[in-house]
Amino acid sequence: MKPNTKRYVISISVGLFIACVVMLTRNIFEETDINRILVILNDAFFISGICLVCAGGLVFVSDGGMFRMLGYGISMVFTARKWNIKDRKYKDYYEYKKAKDENKHSCAYLLLVGLAFIAIAAIFLIWIKL
């Protein structure tokens, strides 16, 4: 399995897990009214879609460098005991920034799967209104 396919499968699985948890907490299997079932399905897919889109947004912002200084500060706290600069993983912020720029992550899979879940929720919403 390709790494890209693996990311999509994992994000779809997480989205379906969140949707199932929402459906079970709203007692979907005890409902007999079709409109109420559609409302629960709409809520479940919308909540899971929003969670995935927000996670993708955080990955996007993080790769843009928004939390880079915070990460460098935390890494320096844990390496403060090392007095010799040669023993540290990163000598200064510039080296830390270069290392993080080489290791960027794609967030498209989270955004696409999240938007697909929101689109499914929109279909249920349209079905409710009919």
Structure description:
The protein has 130 residues and is mainly alpha-helical. It has one domain. It is built from five helices and no strands. It has helices spanning 3-25, 34-63, 68-78, 93-102, 108-129. Helix 1 (3-25) packs parallel to helix 5 (108-129) and helix 2 (34-63) packs antiparallel against helix 5.
Q: Which features characterize this protein?
A:
130 residues; single chain; 5 helices; mainly alpha; elongated
Q: Could you give a short description of this structure?
A:
By secondary structure, the protein is mainly alpha-helical. Helix content is 74%, strand content 0%.
So how many helices?
5
CA-CA gap between termini: 41 Å
What's the number of extended β-strand segments? 0
Average the pLDDT over all residues and give the rounded result. 86
- Relative helix content: over 70%
**Low-pLDDT segments, ≥5 res:** none
Tell me the major beta sheet. Answer: none
Percentage beta strand: under 5%
Decide which structural class fits the backbone: mainly alpha
Rg over CA atoms? 21 Å
Could you give the order of the helices and strands?
A: HHHHH
- How many separate domains make up the residues? 1
Outline: elongated
